């Protein structure tokens, strides 16, 4: 098996910043820049979820069936997968500032195309291209990890992942409320404005470092596979990420069915507002990041704890489907807060570990990790919907809880691969 080609690009401008400093010697990651990156993660990842609460409105407006309109979500997922596989690896071999801001500019144009689409076919194409360019968020995280000082890397990753999770959770609320007030086209139109503003701002303040690897695009794609083969910790951590996101997706896909059932009788707007509960769990990523910065040797045991708590969170979530009046809703809210906190904490730990494996190839690591993670999410959504159809809320809850249980098995398997790095970190 060949070793991954990780030759750094030549020249001083091509060297990755050290200790979070730019080439000019100024701090490469100020608190303001970290917040801007987190906001970029939020508004960009939201593009993938706007359509979910809008399918009925889109179908009626474009005179197509709701089944046909639902293909909009499918093409978006396909576009994002293609972007993960073929665009994210470019983050290591080209200058990141023009790459990131250029993709955001194209993303803004595709969102405008969604807002103006005269037919479902045009909307499908625009949504697919929007999803492809939305992989910017998966290049920002490894770039921030490269810019950050070793002692603050976990905190920075946690901040950006918090922005990502907030974008996922609030996108449905935002789309549902705005569509009810001004129509579904306004959702995409305002999103285009947000992305355009973000692109301009990033172009002005993002450090412009050279590429990290002096290799061709074809070598980089081959290197993604090489990295996956050469790093067992990456493989296990990717599977753990898939288990966490699979559980997350299983819950958020099926909770809509529960909340719209006669037991709760929530409207579409009510369901969208319920996502605000989950957003509160995202802030825990900041605390998790700070703890890992101070005690990196705790990453492996902490990972097991959050996976166990994630599985246990489905006890109150499952009881939320019983007929206990207001107590059922209270239990559901408590379970959601714990579940989202654990999913977010697990992702912060996973990424803080994998980004230490090959600092010069973090886009390769991200490609393997995030592609596996989203595959787990797709599987969680599909299995959750199927379980709810056959066994109701109890079946969906058991499927969601099974993912972190499987993740605990992966956590045990990765111990021997991470023991050495944990000792060095301590």
Short characterization:
The chain has helices at residues 31-45, 55-62, 66-69, 71-86, 96-116, 120-133, 136-147, 153-182, 184-205, 217-230, 232-259, 268-282, 284-294, 299-312, 314-319, 326-354, 362-413, 415-425. It is an all-alpha fold and 426 residues long.
Explain how this protein is built.
The chain is mostly helical. The protein contains 18 helices and no strands. The chain has helices at residues 31-45, 55-62, 66-69, 71-86, 96-116, 120-133, 136-147, 153-182, 184-205, 217-230, 232-259, 268-282, 284-294, 299-312, 314-319, 326-354, 362-413, 415-425. Helix 8 runs antiparallel to helix 9, helix 10 packs parallel to helix 17 (362-413) and helix 14 (299-312) crosses helix 17 (362-413). The radius of gyration is 21 Å and the shape is globular. The two termini are 32 Å apart.
How is the secondary structure organized here?
Layout: H1 31-45, H2 55-62, H3 66-69, H4 71-86, H5 96-116, H6 120-133, H7 136-147, H8 153-182, H9 184-205, H10 217-230, H11 232-259, H12 268-282, H13 284-294, H14 299-312, H15 314-319, H16 326-354, H17 362-413, H18 415-425
Helix pairs in contact: 1-7, 1-8, 1-9, 4-6, 5-6, 5-7, 5-9, 7-8, 7-17, 8-9, 8-12, 8-13, 8-16, 10-17, 11-16, 11-17, 12-16, 13-16, 14-16, 14-17
């Amino acid at each position: 098996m060949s070793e991954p080609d990780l030759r750094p690009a030549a020249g001083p401008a091509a060297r990755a910043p050290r200790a979070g400093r730019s080439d000019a010697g100024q701090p490469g990651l100020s608190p303001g820049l970290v917040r801007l990156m987190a906001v970029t993660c939020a508004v960009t990842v939201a593009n993938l979820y706007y359509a979910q609460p809008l399918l009925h409105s889109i179908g009626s407006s474009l005179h197509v069936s709701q089944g046909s309109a639902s293909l909009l979500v499918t093409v978006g997922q396909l576009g994002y997968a293609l972007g993960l596989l073929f665009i994210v690896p470019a983050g290591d071999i080209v200058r990141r500032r023009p790459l990131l801001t250029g993709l955001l500019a194209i993303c803004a144009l595709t969102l405008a195309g969604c807002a103006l689409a005269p037919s479902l076919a045009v909307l499908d194409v625009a949504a697919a291209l929007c999803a492809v360019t939305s992989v910017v968020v998966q290049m920002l995280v490894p770039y921030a990890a490269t810019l950050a000082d070793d002692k603050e890397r976990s905190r920075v990753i946690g901040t950006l992942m918090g922005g990502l999770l907030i974008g996922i959770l609030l996108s449905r609320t935002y789309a549902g409320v705005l569509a009810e007030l001004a129509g579904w086209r306004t959702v995409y139109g305002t999103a285009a404005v947000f992305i355009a503003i973000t692109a301009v701002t990033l172009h002005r303040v993002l450090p412009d470092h050279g590429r990290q690897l002096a290799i061709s695009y074809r070598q980089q794609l081959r290197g993604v596979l090489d990295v996956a083969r050469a790093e067992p910790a990456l493989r296990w951590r990717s599977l753990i990420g898939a288990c966490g996101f699979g559980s997350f997706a299983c819950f958020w896909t099926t909770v809509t069915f529960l909340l719209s059932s006669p037991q709760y009788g929530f409207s579409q707007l009510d369901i969208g507002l319920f996502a605000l509960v989950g957003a509160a769990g995202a802030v825990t990523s900041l605390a998790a990041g700070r703890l890992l910065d101070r005690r990196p040797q705790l990453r492996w045991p902490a990972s097991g704890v959050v996976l166990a708590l994630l599985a246990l969170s489905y006890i109150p979530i499952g009881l939320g489907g019983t007929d206990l009046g207001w107590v059922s809703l209270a239990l559901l809210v408590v379970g959601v807060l714990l579940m989202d906190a654990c999913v977010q904490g697990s992702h912060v730990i996973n990424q803080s570990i994998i980004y230490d494996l090959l600092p010069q190839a973090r886009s390769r690591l991200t490609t393997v990790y995030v592609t596996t993670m989203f595959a787990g999410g797709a599987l969680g959504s599909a299995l959750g919907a199927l379980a709810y159809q056959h066994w109701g809320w109890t079946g969906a809850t058991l499927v969601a809880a099974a993912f972190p249980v499987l993740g605990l098995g992966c956590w045990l398997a990765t111990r021997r691969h991470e023991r050495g790095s944990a000792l060095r970190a301590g």
